[in-house]
Amino acid sequence: QVQLVESGGGSVQAGGSLRLSCAASGYSSRRYWLGWFRQAPGKEREGVACIYTAGSETYYDASVKGRFTISQDNAQNTLYLQMNSLKPEDTAMYYCAADDYWSSLWVNHDPRYWGQGTQVTVSS
Q1: N-term to C-term CA, the chain
Q2: One pLDDT digit (tens) per residue for the chain, 124 residues
Q3: Cβ distance 22 to 14 under 8 Å?
Q4: How are beta strands 46-52 and 33-39 bridged, if at all?
Q5: Chain Cα centroid distance, residue 83
Q6: Three-class DSSP category at 11
Q7: For 43, which DSSP code?
Q8: Could you tell me which residues come within 8 angstroms of residue 8 by beta carbon, excluding any fewer than 6 positions away?
Q9: Rounded distance, CA 34 to CA 40, Å?
Q10: Largest CA distance in the chain
């Protein structure tokens, strides 16, 4: 059974940084997509960034490109999201997600597996 467990959320002032982690376990394949999504109150869930576990291919939403960096530690089966220059509009619940297919995860925003989420709050 696939499990995704996020950690690292918290409260920070605008301009600050946070690093989110997602511990992944139970995936039978070593070739799949991992991603970060976020959802603010009253807004639709949006994709933040994703990465292919068997390579270095990454995708970012335009709103975070240049400020956020997605990375992975394959030995530890851990996904990271380094968030710099945070803005109040980055405030949201952040979710880790996984799927075998890029399109399901990044295009359709309908990955097979989800974590429970971690809250990020950025104050001005």
Answers
A1: 40
A2: 999 999 999 999 999 999 999 999 998 888 999 999 999 999 999 999 999 999 879 999 999 999 999 999 988 899 999 999 999 999 999 999 999 999 999 999 999 999 999 999 999 9
A3: no
A4: antiparallel
A5: 10
A6: strand
A7: S
A8: 18, 19, 20, 21, 118
A9: 20
A10: 43
